[in-house]
Design a protein that fits this description.
The chain is of the alpha/beta class and about 400 residues long. The protein has helices at about 1-10, 20-25, 35-45, 55-65, 75-85, 100-110, 130, 140-150, 195-205, 220-240, 245-250, 250-255, 270-275, 280-290, 310-315, 345-355, 360-375, 380-385, and strands at about 90, 115-120, 135-140, 155-160, 180-185, 210-215, 275, 290-295, 320-325, 340.
């Protein structure tokens, strides 16, 4: 996440250290997937390497260690991949790296046999041709599989999110002193979290003892105005047949895949007043572990499918997951392992019920963790993924 990288490098890590030492330090923070896939792929015999392609100071260090002048992130990535001579590349950021770039990599890396893309966030028809360059597309839920099947894609790997059990040895098991916690983002832009915002507004109005650690897109009005202008310009150029101009101008190209007019997140004063700064990685896992109930609500893009990481992170550390009910939630958890809600009112009711029934709360927490450690670890996911890498 860009926000995390900004936070991490504002702490002034020692950039004089070797690239590998810096990479190991960054991945040890356990942000997002960190090195979970590469770690467990190595355990089943794959020589696997992670590249954090958007960490500018880190990529500059790689250039320094390899006696190269840093020119751009993309050029540095190409040089790294050429030096590694991979058989397989998995782009987890497939919105940045796709299309003709994949063709170029095939032309300069003779060893390359398989290129995987990844989709588990909002996607539009704009990306169809670009994603067709991947040999296989990894998705985290059937919702995204259905999207690609509609356009004739055949090689789709459904790989739900997971929990890295190593984290349990890296956090402490304290008393759960937080009643209810929500940790995540609130973005009105592109209708990402409309329902999520409504839910949190209702919960705080019910005076629930809720702690919020939230990332919001609080940008200046000038910033929003500029983005709206670029979005409109992009649409006008497409309508009059000048889309090639959009593709050639980086500022306009960013809006090719956007479906809605850019907007800024607007929250009530009461909700805004409760929000703490977002936390990431190990700090976030410790927070989840220290909390009785973890409130989860999917982004609007998820439709009727359970898809996000928080389900497995919350249960993985042994806290009670309260999540919005999805048609396929039973594929991941049984009814006595997590608590679900189908409406805004029911979410508030379930919180009250759990707080009034501590034994039931503890039972959900234990059974949910047992299920995740049995079926939803990265080690389990790698056992599936590895079958597609030969």
């Amino acid at each position: 996440y860009k926000d995390y990288l900004h936070m991490y490098y504002s702490g002034e890590p020692d950039l004089s250290l070797s690239y590998q030492t810096q990479l190991d330090a960054l991945l040890s923070k356990r942000v997002s997937w960190s090195d979970s896939y590469s770690y467990y792929l190595k355990k089943v015999g794959f020589d696997s390497v992670e590249i954090v392609a958007n960490a500018v100071p880190l990529q500059k260090s790689w250039c320094r260690d390899n006696s190269l002048q840093f020119q751009s992130l993309k050029k540095t990535l190409v040089e790294q991949l050429k030096s590694l001579k991979p058989n397989v590349i998995w782009f987890q950021d497939s919105y940045t790296y796709n299309g003709d770039f994949i063709d170029y990599l095939r032309s300069v890396i003779p060893s390359l046999k398989i290129v995987l893309g990844m989709c588990c966030s909002p996607i539009t028809e704009y990306y169809i041709k670009r994603f067709q360059k991947f040999d296989k597309v990894v998705v985290c839920a059937n919702h995204f599989k259905d999207f690609f099947l509609k356009y004739g894609f055949k090689n789709i790997i459904v790989l739900p999110h997971a929990f890295d059990q190593r984290i349990l040895s890296e956090i402490s098991s304290n008393d759960k002193y937080n009643d209810v916690v929500f940790s995540g983002s609130l973005m009105s832009d592109q209708n990402f979290h409309s329902y999520r915002i409504k839910l949190l507004e209702q919960i705080v109005n019910a005076n629930v003892n809720l702690k919020l650690f939230v990332n919001t897109n609080k940008k200046s009005s000038n910033y929003t105005y500029i983005r709206k202008s670029l979005y409109i310009t992009n649409r006008v150029l497409r309508k009059i047949g000048l889309n090639s101009f959009n593709e050639s101008v980086s500022l306009l190209k960013k809006f090719q895949g956007q479906r809605y007019m850019p907007s800024v997140t607007v929250l009530s004063k009461k909700l805004s007043g409760l929000i703490c700064n977002p936390i990431f990685g190990i700090e976030m896992f410790q927070l989840l572990s220290d909390s009785k109930i973890i409130l989860n609500v999917h982004g609007d893009i998820a439709s009727n499918f359970a898809a996000n990481m928080r389900m497995f992170e919350a249960t993985g550390v042994g806290s009670c997951l309260l999540t919005d009910k999805k048609d396929d939630l039973h594929h991941y958890f049984k009814d006595d392992e997590v608590v679900s809600y189908s409406s805004l009112d029911e979410a508030v009711e379930k919180i009250t019920w759990l707080m009034d029934n501590p034994r039931e709360l503890i039972s959900f927490s234990k059974k949910g963790q047992e299920r995740t450690l049995l079926d939803h670890t990265f080690e389990k996911r790698v056992s599936v993924l590895s079958n597609y890498l030969m």
